[in-house]
Amino acid sequence: ETGVTQTPRHLVMGMTNKKSLKCEQHLGHNAMYWYKQSAKKPLELMFVYNFKEQTENNSVPSRFSPECPNSSHLFLHLHTLQPEDSALYLCASSQDAGGDTDTQYFGPGTRLTVL
Amino acid sequence: AQSVTQLDSHVSVSEGTPVLLRCNYSSSYSPSLFWYVQHPNKGLQLLLKYTSAATLVKGINGFEAEFKKSETSFHLTKPSAHMSDAAEYFCVGRPRARGSYGKLTFGQGTILTVHP
Asked: Which residue has the higher pLDDT, B76 or B96?
């Protein structure tokens, strides 16, 4: 798990707050991902960055705003969230999102609770 | 289109007995297939992956899986369960086509319980 780190591990915020989730990968990868894992639902891909370019936005509401300043860092900026946004947010990285045999490695996640 | 189906939402075994977690896939493309494990309040850890080399894939912690094209299956097995194997397991597929840009398809997950 030390290959992909996420901070904070737990976050509680009100609906009017602004906060950011941070992900860092130490694997020399070029692609990074945000996923949402809600109770009793499959993992949902939110965003993909490949070589710092956003290649996927899976119809995510604008209250979630990703930022990828370089290949090692990925942020998810949060504002005016809803209680249904409470979930485990997982970051992943891989060598090349477009690669035929690409493999994703996951961080430990941030448990977000929106009050 | 691709789909991944885990046939059991819960599996319960006794420590020291074999583990079988079942996964079927359907894909328009020859897929890459993965098994990940998630312990409570942790991220997903890669157990093993199939990318068209050997059909029998060995992973970490004594797990292995066999890709059977004729049955469109990729079941996960372990000869002898350990208490530390208790977790949720995800079968995951990815079409091996350029431009798929990381679009994994996750199964619903199987919760493995190991009894002493």
From this structure: B76
